[in-house]
Write a structure and sequence with these properties.
By secondary structure, the chain is of the alpha/beta class. Helix content is about 45%, strand content about 15%. Bound molecules: NADP nicotinamide-adenine-dinucleotide phosphate (NAP).
């Protein structure tokens, strides 16, 4: 996204909440929304990371930085209240916070990993949506974009739980899209493929292994956080006004078929 035409997406002065905004895709999205003219609230657990994102914004003083664990009901309620208190409304949200959890065989998995992965990727996102929808209903509508993954469309050999939660994000999003279409609230999903972020890099012990991974995509490279962010901005914006209950894959062609 460039800052050359901030009104092109129809997001000027729109209020947008981004979770997981301190790094990776969420950071790129927060900056992209701000470049498109939106007023942005940045949420995550580590304030120092969110402050780094704030520094990248075109108007850092306008950004709202809020500590929030998406799997804590009180945090999420306070987050959405704080956004409304500061900006007067909530027009759009990008529910991006997520975790891979611990990879490994299903029979060696445990409740701790279940609570982390399901608690973040599904219950946390569900908590965010509930509070966001309630606020949007008061103001007559809005647009929610949820972050899934190619693992929402294919199995994931290293983490059945991660894949299961990301499949669930799509079911939740489609169902909410149906429930709230008549209330002016759209709900869509962006599904990234392998994207060059700290989360992805933490899975590979060497640059060579990461490079090999990148060549699995038909486009023969990793995605950038900005490329996923741009898709989220479009889905959140009025430009996609007739799109709801849909998933946009930003995966370099991985799910297009075998090549
Ligand atoms: N990178 C990829 O290849 C890839 C592929 C498919 C899908 N995705 C999805 O893309 C999203 C962003 O991932 P990323 O690659 O950008 O990784 P990342 O840089 O690690 O970002 C994840 C963000 O989520 C936040 N977060 C995690 N748990 C949280 C919680 N309980 N409450 C609030 N915030 C929480 C983290 O911040 P704090 O720790 O400070 O809270 C962090 O900023 C995730 O949903 C991920 O599943 C990524």
């Amino acid at each position: 996204m460039t800052s050359s035409s901030p009104s092109a997406f129809g997001l000027h002065d729109q209020v947008v909440l981004v979770t997981g905004a301190g790094s990776g895709i969420g950071q790129a999205a927060a900056v992209a929304f701000a470049d498109a003219g939106a007023r942005v609230a940045l949420a995550g657990r580590r304030l120092e990371y969110l402050e780094e994102t704030r520094k990248l914004m075109p108007d850092p003083d306008d950004a709202l930085v809020l500590r929030c664990d998406v799997d804590r009901e009180a945090d999420v309620a306070a987050l959405v209240d704080a956004v409304a208190e500061r900006f007067g409304r909530l027009d759009a949200a990008f529910n991006n916070a997520g975790t891979f959890g611990r990879f490994g065989p299903l029979h060696e998995d445990d409740d701790e990993n279940f609570d982390l992965v399901v608690g973040t990727n599904l219950r946390g996102l569900w908590r965010c949506m509930r509070h966001q929808v309630a606020r949007m209903l008061e103001s007559g509508g809005g647009s929610i974009v949820n972050c899934a993954s190619v693992a929402a469309h294919l199995g994931h050999a290293k983490s059945p739980l991660y894949s299961a939660t990301k499949h669930a994000v799509i079911g939740l999003s489609k169902s909410a899209a149906l429930q709230y279409a008549g209330s002016g609230i759209r709900v869509n999903v962006v599904s990234p493929g392998s994207t060059d972020t700290g989360m992805l890099r933490s899975l590979y012990e060497s640059a060579d292994a990461l490079e090999a991974r990148s060549h699995r995509a038909p486009l023969k490279r990793l995605g950038t956080p900005a490329e996923v962010a741009n898709a989220a901005v479009w889905l959140a914006s009025p430009l996609s006004g007739y799109v709801t209950g849909q998933t946009l894959l930003v995966d370099g062609g991985v799910t297009a078929g075998s090549s």
